[in-house]
Every structure is written in structure tokens, then in C-alpha cells.
Design a protein that fits this description.
By secondary structure, this protein is an all-alpha fold. It has one domain. The protein has 4 helices and no strands. Helix 3 (26-48) packs antiparallel against helix 4. The relative contact order is 0.24.
Amino acid sequence: MRGTDRRTGQLFSYINLEARVLADHPLRTIRVIADDALGALSQDFAALYSGMGPPSIAPEILLRAMLLQAF
């Protein structure tokens, strides 16, 4: 079963994580581009997963993490 792509920033910190990153930081631009691209692929990812079994880590999260490793 396909996992969800939801952000859990409040799970790890009481401070808003968005407030910790500068507004003009380059990763903010990369995040917007990556979110748009991965959002367009969401239906393709959903078609690859079965409806049975435990939920996986959402492929969007894994691909976003791999992209961040490059920067």
C-alpha cells in the first residue's frame, strides 16, 4: 500500500521549521520545483502500488530526500 506524503515538522520541534530557513534560501526554489514535478507523477506512483499490505514510505518523500543529498 502506498504511503502518504504529509509533512510532520511539528513532530520533532515546537518551533515552526519554515521560520528557521531564510526566505531567499535556494532550497526553497528547489522545493517548489520538486513538489510540482512529484505532484505531476503522483498518479503514476499510485498505479504502481497495491491496495493491500502495510503502507510504504511515499515515493515522493524518498525522491525528495535523494534530491536533497545532491545539494
